[in-house]
Amino acid sequence: MSSAAQVTFSEPLASTFDVHRIREDFPILRSTVRGKPLVYLDNAATTQKPRQVIDRIVRYYSEENSNVHRGVHFLSEVATNHYEGARKTIQKFLNAASEREIVFVKGTTEAVNLVAATFGRTNVGAGDEVLISAIEHHSNIVPWQMLCEEKGATLRIAPANDLGEIDIDGFRELLGERTKIVSIIHISNALGTINPIKEMIALAHERGIPVMIDGAQGVPHGKVDVQDLDCDFYAFSGHKVYGPTGIGALYAKERLLEAMPPYQGGGDMILSVTYEKTSYNALPYKFEAGTPNIAGAIGLAAALDYVSTIGAETITAHENELLRYGTEQLLTIDSLRIIGTSKNKASVISFVLEGAHPHDIGTIVDAEGVAIRTGHHCAQPLMLRFKVPATARASFAIYNTREEIDALVASVRKVVEVFA
Amino acid sequence: MSDLRELYQQVILDHNKNPRNFKKLESANRTAEGYNPLCGDHYTFFVQMEGETIQDLGFQGAGCAISKASASVMSSILKGKTRDEAHTLFDGFHKMIKGEVKPDEVGQMGRLAAFSGVSEFPTRIKCASLAWHTMNSVLNEDESVVTTE
Questions:
Q1: Which among B13, B40, B66 has CB closest to A389?
Q2: Which residues of chain B have a pLDDT value below 70?
Q3: pTM attached to this predicted model
């Protein structure tokens, strides 16, 4: 490419990567907000969608729409093939051993609820314990809390240090005789901390305790290999990895899925039904009651294909450079403090400003076209841990640029001016 | 930026930085809590009612500039007002921040007019109205926690 030398110069860590070409794939990035070019830095909430995903969904509804696993007619076979092809794409993407280990769900939240309601209800009893950490998203707190209330079990919380990292010694000490499952976030949505999940999984397995990983932020930011991690459950959402909303996947080891009762009853999850007895379908269909989000699954596969074409290493390198540059530039503002300062971080910067509340920061930077998240990021106990009511959070994706970080920093300086 | 200046008027910035009546009122005979859990804006109001009159009031808590300034300006304005006068101000204020009327159409808005810019920022209306809804619950003797989310 003729622009390679120039790209190498402006993006030192991703020499073959042309962010401007990537940006052309995302129609929404050409839009303006309040008269300013959109600077979209709320990627940990949801990512924008490339044309490849949008077009794939349009093609499905224009040419392939039908219900799956039911009809003998042509379109039903086409839709079923694409839907099952999407499952295969996810299996390969996560390096799962078998397609039977991939269950389609609405997203990470439903996956955690599914595991809590099936594996949890079967294996957690009165006096038992469920272990999570102090840096979890509400979706990895509340389903376990509900399970513990129902069963008379106890929710244990592995502590976090001031950098926003899970205290591994504290985690190890809480792995006990009564611990029936551990559920940990892979990458913190609120702080960006990348947890040492492989080590944590090994520690839990030493005591024979299964581990669920909330991978909502894990999958978008780098390579995930469920066999290498040896996790028992891994969940992610399509919309955080350039795919559609309302679709995600749960990976679970086959022997665990075999032993688990169904999640919901209905069509598709059965082999035969009489009023006396219903026999359940094979894996993974036992966990997919009702007509699934077919277009969503196919769109998600298109998103994972898109990500695979760019390559996990390229994505990680580009985002790390944005994180490094963004951290350096934001810290030039004296009254700004970053919450979450682990050495091992993904491209999420949570910050507070002295004298300006995060919601006022959000409103003022929005007037400059800069979209960031402000609030508690669905992690209220974490906000309490860091003694802040809320934070402002900029999170970067594959299509973000240094110039956009400059726009963010300039807009935050305006906040400082207003509240001087 | 012009809309922003309308939102963050000097009166609001001043009351955010130096909130008036920002204290627990020992003589209070009514208290009420206003809490927007999604935002985290959280205030407690202490009110000394004598008959139909708001004799004194104070507040404590934390939140964004709009919610804090709104609580501060309200606390200054409502001192000495009767229940009916407070209700009238509440109605006018509410219509103004929702953009249904201009400040000069409501009359007697005074410093409250500084909040008229909120109407251009629909997501911030709940911030400006939290204090007023909470005060309304004091006047209506409703004891549940107030939210505007």
A1: B40
A2: 1-2, 106-107
A3: 0.92
